Every structure is written in C-alpha cells, then in structure tokens.
Amino acid sequence: MTLTGVALVALGAAAGAPTRWYVDVAVQRRWLPSFPWGTFAVNVAGSALLGFLVAGWSTGSTALSLVGIGFCGALTTFSSFAWESNRLAEDGATRTAVTNVIATPLLCCAAAAVGWWIGS
C-alpha cells in the first residue's frame, strides 16, 4: 500500500472511531443496558456498508481504502464485542452472553450479504 493509501485509511478511521462511540452511546441510552446494543448496531451496520462497498468498488480503489478499510474498520469492533460478551458471562448473564456470541456474527454476515446484494 502506498503512503496515499495509508493516509486514506487513517482518514477514514479518524471518522469511523468517533462515529462508533457516538452511535454506541446514543443506542445504549435508548435501549436496555442489559445487552450491548450499541456495539451490536455498529457491527451490523458496518458489515452491511462494507458488503455494499465491496460489491461495487474494485479492491484497489481509493474509495474502498477510505470508506471500506478505514471507516468501516474503525466503526466495527470485535474487541468490544468480545469484551462485552465476556463481561456478560462473568456477571452471570450467561444466556445474554451466548445470545450475543451467536447473534452478532450471524447477523453481521447476513448484513454483509444483503449489502453486497444491494450493491451488485
């Protein structure tokens, strides 16, 4: 990847990370805190957006570097998903933790497929 490509990824990530935080906070304020709805929402939305982008743009495009790798990469979060699932299990909410561990990857894959289908 060129220096320009690295800059595009960094610029996209600079927008994606605060967007993740804002969406997470906004969603958690509206929904019950017993489930990590904010992380779930950004992961599903980011997967759908990335599926859409990959369907329409070549892998070497600047737009894919900026939005796909940078923005979507910073918007979605596996680490928060894993930490929140572990925290739920440690707090005794085993059923909720298992639901999160099963539902998140399934719905993220489905969202990516729908995004790809719409973008094709």
Outline of this structure?
Helices cover 84% and strands 0% of the residues.
Give your account of this protein's structure.
With 120 residues, this protein is mainly alpha-helical. It is built from 5 helices and no strands. The protein has one domain (3-119). Helices cover 84% and strands 0% of the residues. The longest helix has 28 residues, at 3-30. The chain is globular and about 45 Å long.
> What is the CA-based Rg, rounded?
15 Å
Number of DSSP strand runs: 0
Tell me the number of structural domains.
Answer: 1
Structural category: mainly alpha
The end-to-end span amounts to 26 Å
Largest sheet: none
Q: Mean pLDDT score, rounded? A: 93
Strand percentage lies at: under 5%
Identify the overall geometry.
globular
Helix fraction, binned, reads over 70%
Q: Give helix and strand order, one letter per element, not per position.
A: HHHHH
Tally of contiguous helical segments? 5
> Which blocks of ≥5 consecutive residues have pLDDT under 50?
none
Sequence-ordered SSE layout with sheet pairings:
Blueprint: H1 3-30, H2 37-56, H3 62-75, H4 78-90, H5 94-119
Features:
single chain; 120 residues; globular
